[in-house]
Amino acid sequence: MLPTTTNGGKRSASQRSGLPLYLRRIIRPKQMDFEYTFWLMQQLCISPKTAYRHTSYHKQTKNQWARDDPAFVVICCLLLAVAAAAYCATFSDGLWHSVLTVLSAVVVDFLLIGMAIATAGWFLANKFLRKRTLHSHAIEQHVEWMYAFDVHCNSYFPLFLLLYVLQLLLAPLLLWRSLVAALLSNALYAAALGYYHYLSFLGYSALPFLEHTEVFLWPIALILVVLPFAVLTGFSPTRFTLNIYFG
């Protein structure tokens, strides 16, 4: 039992020091693995199960589920800033408003809302979805908050490609006041949000000590229920979102 106790202590210490190390690496680009990050982003779009298969490898080598490399977050923030700037160049009419829009996209939409979603997923998983240990000597495992935030970041990247990049390219069509435009806009948002929740499900189901992770798929059912009503009423999420940011 002594080796088990010692390892558990080392793991706790590593997890406690993980966030400061994570933050220190943000200002040291040479310590970030950008090549792996771009590979991971590609896999999240074409083979998400392969991407999460590497989560177990990370656990075996780093002794934690969460990434200790902030490269993914840094790249996402940069891409979001560039995309938001492109929207501002297209729809905004003022420099100060453009700066606020870019900051809002990165800090509020991606980081702060992402932290809130990660906290909710972290609480739900630890409170209700952990398997009960059958043996008293088994090591009790918990979902790390940083891993929950990793799940959000992973899920957000394909959503970014659909709702930031593709939507901007299709904006002349999506902004038409027609049933076809509303249909395409709703389909785009349904696909982006549905894939976000599907990747979240994969992220939590990759943890072997969790069960009933299909609860993370439930929002997809709600999206499918709301979708026909949104189309029939002519509601366009593209117009709605752009009105929020650009009036």
From TrEMBL:
It is a multi-pass membrane protein. GO terms for cellular component: Golgi membrane. The chain crosses the membrane at residues 71-90, 102-125, 156-176, 188-210, 216-235. It holds the Pfam family UNC-50. InterPro entries: UNC-50 (IPR007881). It is found in: Membrane. Keywords: Membrane, Transmembrane, Transmembrane helix. Belongs to the unc-50 family. This is Unc-50-like protein. It comes from Elliptochloris bilobata.
